[in-house]
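Internal ticket - ligand job 354, S-adenosylmethionine:
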Amino acid sequence: MRDGLLKDSFGRVMRDLRISLTDRCNFRCLYCLPETEAASNFYRGRFDPVRNPKPARLRMPDWKPRSEILTFEEIEFLVRIFARMGITKIRLTGGEPLLRSAVPDVVERIARIPGIEDLAMTSNGFLFARQARALKTAGLKRISFSLDSLDPDNFKKMTGRDGLSEVLRSIELAQEIGMTPVKVNAVIIRGLNEHEIESLAELAQLRDLSFRFIEFMPLDSSRSWQKDLVVPGREILQRLQARFDLHPVPSANPSETARRWRFADGRGEIGIIAPVSEPFCGHCNRVRLTADGRLRTCLFSIHEHDLKGAIRTGASEADLDERIRDIVFHKEDRHHIGEPSFIQPERTMSCIGG
Ligand code: SAM
Ligand code: SF4
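stdout (structure tokens):
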């Protein structure tokens, strides 16, 4: 096996592996799996008949059969290989990772791998309470929740689920058991939750949260994304600066996706993640493993690489090491959102793992 770090042809060194535990989800977020009547109503009539003459296909991706999903043993095997190549950070995601049974088991397997310094999860929070302590005991250090609205009706419209109180309780519980700082993500969409930007930031200040405002990306299952629906990060920041006394937080890590500000009173912070209007590809150190064991070198990759097939046909660790290095070497330089050459990937955010 070769020694050395996992690098691409532009000299970027990979440190962060995001693993999707399942492509399934118990929510139907309007920007991800817009399968609800509310989503259909929201998108209807918003299409520019010239640019987008076809109506949105409000259809779900087909769930992968269980036999195609990586087992926990396979995930552990791959993480050991990635850790030897310098990956230090793992984020478990999905779909909804907490739909997978016995998640603390895979957390425990990964947490004990030498070289893994940071183990985090992204969840919609609906099922967190019942597993919170087991996840913490197993070695989960940090958790990010998604919360797009503080209005129960708008929350339901955006997620397809009447679950605001469960998610707020999960945030509180994560703080109580010391998974701090708790991160919360909101995707901001024009005409849907943009009026809640200030109240979401107030929650961050009140509850001492690391709140992230994220631009809507073209990765939804119905391909309904349009540029007009993106609220640019700069606009979000201007609104927040008009309302709050914010101080920039310098970052020691150029690969960080968020630009961050703290509130003057020192409690809580906000971050803006603006991949559409201000891409940060130049410092990207992330690779992704889908639930069915395909390696993706970019959220927007058109090609993916089957590692599960290789494992199941008996590839050795040395074979996989070689294969992964070769795939990552060819990582894309950047995404092309907004350019005529942009092609939306076949797979949606829920399958890729955000
Ligand atoms: N189900 C979990 C959740 O919602 O937190 C984890 C998976 S979800 C795909 C991971 C993150 O991707 C969430 O923060 C979600 O808001 C974000 N996301 C999903 N679709 C998106 C889109 N089209 N544009 C921007 N962010 C998106
Ligand atoms: Fe599910 Fe997360 Fe996608 Fe919402 S964003 S539908 S919770 S995977």
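Auto-summary: The CA atoms of residues 174 and 211 lie 14 Å apart. The chain has a mean pLDDT of 92.
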